[in-house]
Every structure is written in C-alpha cells, then in structure tokens.
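Incident log, support desk, overnight shift.

02:14 A customer reports that sequence design results differ from what the structure should imply. Their input is reproduced verbatim below. On-call engineer (initials T.W.) acknowledged and began investigating.
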C-alpha cells in the first residue's frame, strides 16, 4: 500500500530501449514525475501541454540552434518532465546553450545515440502507467473497505489518523475546530512550530508537499486534515486516500456528537429546574464546571424554537436538529444547553464572548440554521424562534425563559409571521397582550376602525391597507402610492373615503396615535379567530 504511484524520469531510464540512452543535462531533475508521454515534432508546443509530460523527439523541426533553445524554454515553462532526443538522423549534438539552460532549471535531457522506436516506447510506458492506475484503484478500494470495517470498532479519531499514517507513511496533521494541531507520528515542539508555520504559508499558495481536506459537519468546517510529504510531492493516490479518510472522520465525529447529544437527555430534569428558577448561582456554576463549561460572562438568554410537526419527526431528526443548533451557535460564540419539549426545543445560550454584537450573532446563527441543507429538506416544516430577555445573571435565567414563552405566544397572535422575534422588539405588542387579558380590545378596535372594516368587507376594498401604509409613511402621499403600487389619483380617492369614514381630523396627533394603536391591536387579534366576529357585526 505504501508504494508511491508516481512514475519518475529515473524509473523510465530503466525501461527497454533506454539501455544506451545518456543523460546529457538536468540530471538533478530525474526525480520529476511523468504523467504521460508525447512525441513532438513541431516548433511551438506552448499551448499543448498541461505539465509533467515526457517529450520524445527526433528534432526534425529544431535543427537550428535558436529553435532548439526556444523549444526547451517552452518545455521548461510548461513544466514538462523531461526531453528525450534522438541523435544521428536530424541532430548530431545538443547545443551548449540548451545544455546550460537545462542544467540551470534541472530539466532532464536524455539523448538516444541511435534510432529507437518511439511507438514501442510510448506503448511500453503508457501500459506501465495504466497498470499503475489499476493497482492504485485496487489499493484504494482495499483501503476503503478496511477503513469502513474498522469504523465499526474504532473508539477515537486518533485510531483513524494512525490508520492513514500506516497506509501512506507521510506526516499526518489534524486539528479540531478551535483546538491545537495534532501530529501523527508525534514530533518535537520545535519541529511542530516550524511545520505549522510552513503549513500556514502553504495555505496561501500551491505547495505540492502539503495536501488539505476540510471536514464539514452541519455545513460548517469542523476539523482540518493535512498530509505532509517532505521528500516526494503529494500523489494522486495520496489525495484519494485523504478524501476517503476525511469522509470517515466526518462519520466518526458525527457519531460521537450524536452519542454525546443522547447523553444530554439525562440532563433534562436539572436544566428544567434551572429554567424554573430552582437553582442558586453557586449550584449553577458547580454544574457548569462538572460539564466542562466555564463561561467568560454571566450574560445568558433563552430561545424557544417552534418547529411544525416536531412531534411527528423521528428521534433521529430531532437529535440532528439539536446538534445543528448547538454547532451553529457554538460557532457564533455561545455555550449551548437544550431541553426538548412536546413541540418545541428550548435552548439556553451562555455568552462566551464580549457582550458586543450579542443580538447580531444570534440573528446570524438563526439565519444560518434556516438556510442549512437539513432545514431545506424539511419541505413541510416551518420554524419560528422566540428569544427572551437578555439577563446578566445565570440565576435569573427563568426570567428569560418566561419572556421567551411570552414572545412565542404573542407571535402566534400576530398577523406578520417572521422567522424570529426578540422579546425586546415587541414593544406595543407586549402592552396589547397585557391589556387584552383584562379588557375587551375588540370593542375598542370597532370604535375606531369599524367603518373602514365594514367598507372593505362590503366593497372588497383596501382602505384599511391604505390607512396603515399612509400612517407608516408619516402622511407622505408619494411614498404611500409607491409602497402600494397605485397612482396618486387612486390614493387621493381612497384618502377622501377615509376622511369621510373616520372624520377630517383622523391625522391629528392624538387621534392618529389612537388609530395606529388600534391597527396594531387589529393585527394582533385577527389571527386568533376574532376577525370573524368583526365580520358578523
């Protein structure tokens, strides 16, 4: 398996028809990798090569020294592996300036002292390459099968790293997100620092001694896997093995996360007590230390994720959804605890960064979850996230939980359905919710808006929509007509109707504020089924 599937110029010199061949220049480049063999008898080949080709030629088109020199320049520029030239028929010697530039760039030039059959040479080398490719595919399949079998019994990802090292015999470098680099085999500290520095530099450009495979979980980079080969360039076989191993690591790491998430179910009772305000700050800190968490701040907030048809989902889907939330929010600077309810998931977020951009980071995480492949596949599932008050003490988390539940309840009453809502952004809706518990708001709405509502119902009109837009645009007729996509004349007609129904003073300060408030109340009450009562009166 450790056989390196890379054919070098020096290997080809051991093949048939090369017994009498001489290396006349560029001997230091005999380690060049050969990926194909071409016979070339033209003057310009700059656009015909892709790199690492071995060129065979009689030199019939390069009999003049400057043409020969130009041709070798093109070969070097296009990173050809070397040049095999037949002497005697068209050329008798290699010009000195050609030898000089070949030595300068370590570009091998091999001379045949007599006529050789180029057809047999290409057939022999290409057959060798095809056989190597076949062995590579066979070994790759054997590696994949062995690795898949081991995955059933492997306990740690370190076992996988050891397995790829034993197969390739190159330096393995691995890093989990936000953790230190690991090396297989282990090397001393100074060598580690030097290699990390070299690795970071290789990321910025092409370096054939390094190969890199990101390991993604939940659509985000969770770990990094590198190969480092100081003696030979990374081969195609190495890259294929790297890709298979990265996939295996992703499966193993996901399995570990899944098992870990299952264990967290046992924490439900304690976390529920925390949400209900039953624990002291000392007890909370003790619990967090036992779990390996040491938050940098005492800032916390509770999120409630309402996902439609959550109860009907399989336990695997629910566990995966919790893992998705955890991964994304951790990426955005939060320690995460979760509690599963009947048709919702409750998340406790502990801020692990400065308080700056706290709200923006939560928004970013929610939108990332919403755009994830997992959520896109849930065609019928709809998600809403209610965020409670931000608290600055871990023992006051129950206040955030209570306001998160209030946010969800108010959202269910609102006409406009957003992906997420923050308790602190509800403003007047919080006031409406409290008033509605003690007063029949329907009567107040009818007192102010009944003429408009009845007109729209009778004539299928849009006066209420126009009134709302006109108020939101602060009485600007041009802005209102643009928002409603109607001409000014139509707007003037509707405003005249509103004035007839509500009175000419409907835009005066106190009455305008009351009408705006009642529009919000109407929006709040409408989804709950009370709109039908408006129609019945």
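02:41 Re-run completed on a clean worker. Output:
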């Amino acid at each position: 398996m450790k056989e390196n599937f890379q054919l070098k110029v020096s290997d080809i010199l051991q093949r048939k028809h090369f017994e009498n061949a001489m290396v006349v220049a560029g001997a230091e480049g005999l380690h060049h990798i050969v990926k194909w063999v071409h016979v070339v008898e033209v003057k310009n080949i700059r656009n015909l090569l892709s790199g690492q080709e071995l060129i065979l030629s009689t030199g019939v088109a390069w009999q003049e020294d400057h043409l020969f020199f130009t041709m070798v320049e093109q070969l070097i520029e296009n990173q050809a592996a070397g040049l095999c030239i037949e002497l005697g028929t068209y050329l008798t010697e290699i010009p000195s300036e050609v030898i000089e530039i070949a030595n300068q760039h370590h570009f091998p030039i091999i001379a045949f002292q007599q006529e050789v059959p180029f057809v047999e040479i290409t057939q022999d080398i290409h057959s060798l390459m095809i056989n190597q490719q076949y062995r590579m595919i066979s070994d790759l399949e054997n590696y994949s099968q062995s690795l898949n079998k081991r995955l059933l019994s492997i306990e740690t990802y370190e076992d996988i790293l050891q397995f790829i090292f034993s197969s390739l015999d190159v330096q393995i470098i691995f890093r989990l997100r936000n953790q230190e680099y690991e090396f297989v085999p282990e090397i001393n500290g100074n060598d580690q620092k030097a290699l990390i520095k070299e690795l970071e530099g290789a990321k910025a450009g092409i370096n054939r001694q390094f190969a890199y495979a990101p390991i993604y979980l939940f659509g985000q980079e969770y770990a990094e896997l590198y190969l480092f080969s100081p003696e030979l360039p990374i081969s195609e076989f190495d890259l294929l093995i790297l890709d298979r191993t990265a996939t295996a690591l992703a499966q193993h790491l996901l399995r570990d996360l899944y098992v870990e998430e299952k264990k967290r179910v046992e924490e439900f009772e304690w976390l529920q007590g925390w949400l209900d305000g039953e624990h002291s700050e000392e007890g909370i800190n003790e619990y967090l230390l036992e779990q390996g968490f040491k938050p940098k701040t005492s800032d916390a907030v509770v999120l409630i994720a309402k996902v439609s048809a959550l109860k009907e989902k399989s336990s695997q889907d629910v566990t995966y959804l919790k893992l998705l939330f955890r991964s994304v929010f951790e990426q955005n600077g939060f320690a995460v605890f979760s509690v599963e309810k009947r048709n919702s998931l409750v998340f406790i977020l502990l801020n692990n960064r400065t308080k700056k951009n706290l709200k923006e980071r939560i928004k970013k995480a929610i939108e990332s979850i919403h755009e994830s492949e997992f959520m896109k596949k849930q065609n019928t599932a709809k998600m809403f996230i209610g965020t409670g008050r931000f608290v600055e003490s871990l023992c006051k988390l129950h206040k955030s939980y209570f306001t998160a539940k209030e946010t969800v309840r108010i959202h269910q009453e609102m006409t406009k359905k957003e992906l997420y809502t923050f308790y602190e952004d509800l403003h007047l809706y919080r006031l409406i919710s409290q008033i509605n518990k003690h007063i029949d708001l329907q009567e107040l709405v009818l007192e102010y808006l009944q003429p408009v509502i009845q007109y729209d119902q009778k004539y299928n009109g849009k006066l209420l929509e126009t009134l709302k837009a006109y108020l939101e645009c602060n009485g600007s007729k041009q802005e209102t007509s643009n928002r409603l996509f109607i001409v000014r004349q139509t707007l003037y007609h509707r405003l005249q109707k509103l004035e007839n129904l509500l009175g000419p003073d409907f835009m005066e300060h106190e009455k305008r504020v009351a009408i705006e408030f009642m529009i919000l109340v109407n929006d709040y009450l409408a989804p709950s089924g009370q709109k039908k009562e408006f129609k019945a009166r």
